[in-house]
Amino acid sequence: GRLFYVGAGTSGRLGVLDASECPPTFGSDPDMVQGIIAGGDIALRNSVEAEEDQTETGAQVIREHDVTDLDIVIGIASSGRTPYVLGGLIEAKKIGAQTAIICCTPPNDSVQEIADYVIAPIVGPEIIAGSTRLKSGTATKLILNMLTTVSMIQQGKVYGNLMVDVKASNRKMTDRALRIIMDVTGCNRATAKQKFMEADSRAKVTIIMIAKKLGKEDAVQLLDDHNGFLRPALHH
Predict the structure, then answer these.
(1) Is residue 33 within 8 Å of residue 17, measured between CB atoms?
(2) Which residue from 92, 139, 136 is spatially nearest to 117, judged by alpha carbons?
(3) Angle at 146 between CA 144 and CA 147, to 5 degrees
């Protein structure tokens, strides 16, 4: 299944931000975690406040993303009553998807009827009254971090505290992958770099190749046999 964040304004931007960080950090499919913001991509840079009042638009975007009963839709609404978000959750509920809401005020009964799970950190009054981009936004980001991080750990994307599925998309990420390989296997940088190239820049495969003294194909097969989880593959 997939995870969808649905939000408007700051809440929507935070959902898109968290979703966009999953592929480079965890090597996940971009479709696995998706952020949906009221008003579309233009709302990431420009305020499109009126869009958050459209309940039907929230429902429509759920249909457009072909949400199924295998997915979970998490609404993000500091107030707990944003029409766009509630519309999305109601539609997701009709489809049979799991639903959740993150709100920073005590949820009312109607919210609890459409959300299977309610996450409600009570942050108190904002220092600027009503500006939920402040404490509410900060609390929301921490929660999103927890949700995706725990999800990716359960998917085998992490070994200890190391992002072993990191995508080596630039110099920084390549260097990080090499350091992870060296850390896990104890090899030197030259060996890590050579095997990393042989493994088509896949850190987990590289680690198995070095630790188990296997060729690439055998390392890939061993990892596949353990559903992508590095620890049981190493202990096989």
Answers:
(1) no
(2) 92
(3) 65
3-state SS assignment for residue 35: strand
**Which one, of 115, 122, 141, 33, lies nearest residue 79 by Cα?**
122
Whether 11 and 69 share a structural domain: yes
Residue 23: exposed, middle, or buried by beta-carbon count in 10 A (0-12, 13-18, 19+)?
A: middle
Backbone angles phi, psi at 41, to 5 degrees: -60, -30
Active site positions, annotated: 21, 52
pLDDT < 50 stretches in the chain: none
Q: Are residues 148 and 176 in the same domain?
A: no
Cα 192 from Cα 155, distance rounded (Å): 25
Q: Rounded distance, CA 230 to CA 219, Å?
A: 11
Total domain count, the chain: 2
Q: 């931000």: which residue's tokens?
A: 17
According to the model, what pLDDT value does residue 108 have?
84
CA pair distance 211, 21, nearest whole angstrom:
29
What's the pLDDT tens digit per position in 67-89?
999 999 999 999 999 999 999 99
What gap in Å lies between CA 27 and CA 166, rounded to an integer? 5
Q: What is the pLDDT of residue 193?
A: 97
Query: Do residues 147 and 104 both lie within one domain?
Result: yes
In this prediction, residue 57 carries a pLDDT of 95
Strands (E) located in the chain: 3-7, 33-37, 72-76, 98-102, 117-119
